[in-house]
């Protein structure tokens, strides 16, 4: 049952019951339309109340239907809204908690609206690259006026019901009984005729043309590559310039256009991908979790300090352990400096600074971390050091404590083997700065317990991060792929590019930062150390030696005043470097390479398809559970352009046959050894399939 029908005296109450948010899928729409018709046919009914059970009035359309014919199957959302609007008996929307998208559009089609305070009211379609397609752009301006409606529709952000007096006929007291109040209201208006309809009103603004011109300019500047925000402006404009029915038709047409744009597909993909990432086969949602009330962090360097802040920001007290008092002081000072800077920028109140600092305690002794529910190790990236830390933790931590490592490349199973409780060990790979970046790669070891995994996934959510589970391999999902991307960037330098050309091509593609600017920011010495470790352990993989030469010159990046670019003292703006250009030319000459002009397309394809090809291997090996998890890693941790939906989704959009053909072309060129097509990619391309299904 997705909606229930009940009589309260002479008032029919239709209650959506489609958890979690009363999405208006086909079954719910059908029952609601049947309910309104039944109430109209019942001579004893004088008015109708529509409300929602549980945690929402309605969260809106069921967006899973967007990719199926169901959204267009009668009764559509339009039909439901029209049925309410054309009812000959008054229809009252009784709103609480969440009233969004199609839910708000339905409420706007009702004759009256009654709400509890605190309800989140929004038309968030723009966040999925769409516009409200069931009359929202035509009705909301008729209720709130052009400006307030446009702000809500273009931002998609929720507004509290008590802040929208024009939208509601009554905003009740916080503890009022919503249904009883709505029924009483419905009884009062039962005799009103003609019934008030939003569609009959005018969308007001004292100077609509000037306002719309300014809005177009402002929105175009902020929208970047996304077409939806401007389309929102145009459809809202139609509420002023067109009669209602014509405006509705225009809205429908623009909605249908947007739904097929790659940008909207990408945003919808990311929306579902984020939800999917939290679902782990064999670890059901009701898997018991361990309580996390206290945490400890080992190592107060760049990552340890950031991880401590991430925990503290979520209200979890942290004990920070270091090997020396100097290092501890440095870490504590860094944390305080970050919070003080946030206060300086008005992002944090001085009281919150005091509260947050009170949640961090420093120590040099393992006995002080023993009672933590989770301990996260962030010491040097050195297996022997980490093994020693885990042996100590094994000795002191209370039974049941989760032992996590922030390693970015090392073998979590080997680290777990240093303890007598490998089931409690897990990788929590944060990204720098750890209190800001959304991604948390959760590395599941061979022995990691399901409850430990479920607990850390829940912790990611509590820290407002996107948790993505990875299996154990060198570099996990993100860094294993980025290595292939960086590798291609290096080869391109030898073959004819400059760092700024490569960065420019990737930034025009939509990356927040190209590979060389990124490396200068993170520190070129990090990759250098990894390459040296690899060369000692497992020689084999070819890569451009230009990056090593750069490091030999001490050009570690922004922190040393120069890397792939030159930086003026105290500045972060990259300037092309003649020293680096000379280095690249010398290396190309040494290798006997005749440098050639290389265009944006080749640059982008070589770097992005290197990600895709490695991603396909990671998927095939089961390191990632699904292609969309890889996309989430790249969208939330590596600045991959959101409007392209992640590397695997992008490959699907390009078509896997085209991707494979390009890879085969690169395999025939210089550095072809780096281009063996992943078997999964070759197979899916041959079958005409995609990574993300279908
Ligand atoms: P860092 O060098 O800034 O900090 C390491 C800290 O650990 C130092 O303060 C050091 O005094 C302390 N330490 C070393 N041995 C210790 C021990 N036995 N007991 C207690 N403290 C000890 O290094 P960073 O960058 O914070 O990296 C830490 C870990 O996080 C590494 O495993 C690294 O691979 C990983 N990581 C680093 C990222 C980055 O962007 N820097 C990103 C993601 C992971």
Blueprint (SSEs and pairs):
Blueprint: E1 3-8, E2 11-16, H1 26-41, E3 47-52, H2 77-85, E4 91-95, E5 98-100, H3 102-109, E6 112-115, E7 120-122, H4 136-144, H5 146-155, E8 159-160, E9 170-171, H6 178-189, H7 208-223, H8 228-241, H9 244-259, H10 262-277, E10 295-298, H11 302-313, E11 318-321, H12 325-344, H13 350-358, E12 360-363, E13 374-377, H14 383-396, E14 402-405, H15 412-417, E15 425-430, E16 439-443, H16 450-462, E17 466-470, H17 476-495, H18 499-509, H19 515-522, H20 524-537, H21 546-552, E18 565-566, E19 575-576, H22 578-590, H23 600-620, H24 627-637, H25 647-654, H26 656-667, H27 679-686
Parallel strand pairs: 2-3, 3-4, 4-6, 5-7, 6-9, 10-11, 10-13, 11-12, 13-14, 14-15, 16-17
Antiparallel strand pairs: 1-2, 7-8, 15-16, 18-19
Bound molecules: 1,4-dihydronicotinamide adenine dinucleotide.
The site of 1,4-dihydronicotinamide adenine dinucleotide has 25 residues, from α11, α14 and β15.
What does this structure look like?
- This protein has 694 residues and is an alpha/beta fold.
- It folds into three domains: 2-259, Alpha-Beta Complex (2-enoyl-CoA Hydratase, Chain A, domain 1); 295-470, Rossmann fold (3-Layer(aba) Sandwich), CATH 3.40.50.720; 478-686, N-(1-d-carboxylethyl)-l-norvaline Dehydrogenase, domain 2.
- 48% of the residues lie in helices and 11% in strands.
- It contains 27 helices and 19 strands.
- The strands form four sheets. It has an eight-stranded mixed β-sheet with strand order 12-11-10-13-14-15-16-17, with helices on both faces.
- α3 packs across α4 (136-144).
- It is globular.
- The two termini are 31 Å apart.
- It binds 1,4-dihydronicotinamide adenine dinucleotide (NAI).
- The site of 1,4-dihydronicotinamide adenine dinucleotide has 25 residues, from α11, α14 and β15.
